[in-house]
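To whoever is on call:

I kicked off a structure prediction for a single chain this morning and the downstream step that reads the tokens threw a length-mismatch warning. I double-checked the sequence; it's 214 residues and nothing unusual in it as far as I can see. Pasting both halves so you can look.
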Amino acid sequence: MKRELFESALAENSALIDTIRERAHRAHHLVNQHYDHTLPYGHHLDMVADAVIKYGHNVCDKPEEVPALLFGAYFHDSIEDARLTYNDVLKLCTTMMQPHLAVTATEIVYALTNEKGRTRAERADGRYYSGIRATPYAPFVKLADRLANISYSASAGSHDDSKRMMAVYAGEMQHFIESLSVAGADDIRLSIPQEMIEEIRSHLPLPSTATDKK
């Protein structure tokens, strides 16, 4: 989609997107969830949504799907962290958009919900990434989530947790991109923009590889 058309859809749905943002912030506030121990969790949600707004024109199929895409960004952690169920999210989303768009949005949220597991690897296993690759917009929103986390960690400087996570993200980078990539996909909604990958690389001491450019 042309950037101008995407931005026009954002402007036309600005009031709805503001409502989505407010309700997502509230959902995480109600369970007293924080980001990096001290920040309101909405700080992270806004960073993810900002990445979606910046790059969404690369993957969005139709202007009518823009609110669903932003809903997926703002609510991507709501099942995993804010004690909402799939049906809770779907019911809420249906009050804000047409049923078929609510399903699109809720499926993004569901796809990005980690598996049960004792370790980071178990929670984001092959089944988890398979579900993401099968769900329109989920690979893109997951990449936006990673970009938000890496951007924050890079800006936090010498913070011990941030330094540790930067090392984790660097070690995961190649596998992460391969896990999100849908080979030969003819649905633009399953794509991940190369320019987003390059922005992530700009924060990490990683060389470019042909694998990431699939």
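Update from on-call: the warning came from a stale cache, not from the record. Cleared it. Sanity check on the structure: Residues 160-180 form the longest helix (21 residues).
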